[in-house]
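Quick one - inputs below.
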Amino acid sequence: MPLVLLAVLLLLTACGGGADLPQSTLVPRSDFSADLFGLYKNVFWWALGVFILVEGLLLVAIVRFRARPGRAEPKPVHGHTVLEISWTLAPALILVFIAVPTMRTIFSTAGHAPEGALRVEVIGHQWWWEYRYPTLNISAYNELHIPVRTPIQLDMTSADVIHSFWVPRLGGKRDLIQGRTNRIAFRADSTGEYWGQCAEFCGASHANMRLRVFVQSDSVFQRWVDQQRASPATPAKGSPAEAGQQVYRRSPCIACHTIAGLSQGRVGPDLTHVGSRFTIAGALFPNNAEILHRWIMNAPAMKPGALMTPQSLSPQDLDALIAYLQSLK
Amino acid sequence: MKTWLTTTDHKRIGLLYFWTAFGFFLIGGLEALIIRAQLARPDGGLGVSAETFNQLFTMHGTTMVFLALMPLSAAFFNFMIPLQIGARDVAFPRLNAFSYWVFLLGGLFLNASFIAGPLFGADRLSVAPDAGWFGYENLTSRQFSPGPNVDFWLLGLQILGIASLAAGFNFIVTILNMRAPGMRMLRLPPFTWMTLITQFLVITAFPVITVALVLLMFDRFFGTHFFVPQGGGDPILWQHLFWMFGHPEVYILILPAMGIVSEVLPTFSKKPLFGYTVVVYSGVVIAFLGWSVWSHHMFSSGLGPIADSVFAGTTMLIAIPTGVKIFNWIGTLWGGQIRFTTSLLFAVGFIAMFIIGGLSGVSHASAPSDLQQTDTYYVVAHIHYVLFGGTILGLFAGMYYWWPKMTGRLLSESLGKVHFWLTMIGMNLAFFPMHFSGLLGMPRRIYTYSSELGVTGFNQASTIGAFLIGLATLVFVWNLLRTRWQPISAPHNPWGGATLEWAIPSPPPVYNFTVIPTVESRMPLWQTERHAPMRPLPERPPAPIHVPGGSWWPLITATGLPVMAIGALSHVIPVVLAGAAVVIVGIYRWAYEPFEM
Ligand code: HEM
Ligand SMILES: [Cu+2]
Ligand SMILES: [Cu+2]
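Output:
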């Protein structure tokens, strides 16, 4: 059957090529995602076997029994009890081989991390992510940082509609629902940058609600934690950043954004350490001056529906403001 | 024209259903092509805006499920069920007309949202529904979807639900009560059986979604908090209610196609259906089990390990009766004398494709594994292997099979074969790569994706496949249309079928049967071990047959419903009342209209 060959071929290329693809479910990098992939492979091989058998039977039937002149009228067979029983029991048996590991994995991936896990609260917003580390007293936005080979527990909820947190190489998805807390737990095997995105349709910019996870060695992670804990840098006297800080103080930004010591808006992400992030706006754009320019002047034009209103600032003010934001490491 | 507006003849209503549903099928297909064109390129695609894209996939799903596939099946219920059971019409012919008009008006109402923007002061032309075909709360709450979009959706679906419920009761009564003498339950043709099971699912599942939609309507119009967390409500409740309807609904979509295939295979392999009783009972089992699996759509919602295990288990169970049917179909072909007509090709295509959809269904049923697949293109692949590879291929098999009976004209077999092969190539090219897009991390319902995901090639293949399906459909449309200019020439029984519809002329006269036949076997027109084929019916009715005239009241009553919906949509109570008055007066006059069967 050419289709089978095609299927296998495509899957193999997908597996091979999947190695460096940022959101592939086929290259697990945590205990959680490895469990799920193991289960998927189990189902896949059974399914492939059944596929070849049943499609094969179908093919044989239509080739062997096509009408040819001179062949006797077919016998009017109405059924066959033994056959009926066996093709009821055979799939049932196969399903037992799938069901048992399924149930086992359901319980082992139910989201309970062992004692001493690092707990992070994940809060979904239309269309960005907030992470709070209650034990470390810090928070992060869109980019989640975690230490490698440490059990992580994510307690997830939403500030508005339902979202779904999904970083394929680190594990399966779970929905974020207002008024509820859903959990996942995992331990990442190797350091690196992992991509993810929201998987539950959540409105206009669902496609643009992406995220990054940075899995770091303990020392790098610790350095990042210290940096986030520090109060925001005070700009040097007379620097453009200082002028930018003045612009920020009198701009509408303060209604929506927090910068520790300056403003306490809670509509958008906290900007206290915005300069330390690699990306902005739900990991959609790199964090650089040109992007910030366009973003501040007209965010919804870059990200449909974005809940940050377009701002009007003079070019000088804007440059200063951006210098200030970039100084907030 | 007038006779079509007032008709109560099940055959005319069947044709009306067919052309209307086929029209909606083309609209839904067009929406899909725009979606696919947009996704052919990453990072912004062709420039379809996020808002438009969200409307397109919502309307595509809603249209295909409620306005195309269900009513295409209904076209065959209407035309074929009375013929297959040896009846002159359905049990309630005017109710049948009412169902059709409500369906048509409900469909037009939903689609009117594409151009209704200015009426609601929106800054764009289209205010079509945009929250997905399963309209998850709390995205659909007034707070997060303030416009009329979701109102169109919830009112439109309520209207359509009325049509489905009325038809459901009608066909259950018809099949149980209007059978010809000797047509015992276990002599019913398999299509009639699957229809009966489907209608039981309709009358039990549609009340559930109606309740859900009414609660949603209260939340949106009157500020109740059934699904709103801040008010103590629960958005998960919506998911339970929707899928409690939604899973039976997928069987409502597939069982009629399974019935069609169970008619086509025996006819073209000249063998009775293998394991008739097993096929019938497995349909019944599927319908029962179909009620116990709904939460497999919610594995990522966090229901807890016990619920997940139970629903994973029941879902795997349902794969068994499904598999049994497939084996029986292969058993039917085995040892036969298979004639490769277009209809048979589509039926075999159905089996081949449905197997793939069933197998990917099992990988979804494994709950933890599904945490990687749910809400990705992998699910989109599954849905399309079962709904396109299953339902639509099955319906095409039925169209080629019954078109001569419905119109008296045969479809071209050579065009049919072009249609078949283009469809098969197109659908596999469109839907197979979606498994990979999904496994490589592409979520569903996104208007754009990053080129760095590495799924661009798979998406381009899908887009090409989709346009091939479009081309195939054009071939089919041409095939349908060209029969209009042909003389009526199909014989009574062009394929050598075994069931009663083939005992009468094509197209059948208004009264169907000159005399109601007496049935002695499950395959009345075939020679079996114990029974000779039924004797041909007389050419002319031996006694005059009274045929009821038409009625305006079903159509008039039906128009009241969209009027009520328009009133609700625009918050003008008098319009709602006027619509309600039309419905009430319509039903009253209808009840006292002299009309006999
Ligand atoms: C062997 C039989 C089947 C099994 C085990 C099965 C299993 C499943 C599961 C577990 C899901 C949820 C996937 C997810 O959202 O993550 C699903 C989705 C779906 N299935 Fe099936 N399925 C089967 C057959 C069918 C049939 C016959 C149909 C209809 C013709 C169907 C239509 C659908 C649809 C429409 C959805 C997606 C709904 C949505 O999310 O929009 N399935 N199936
Ligand atoms: Cu989302
Ligand atoms: Cu389901």
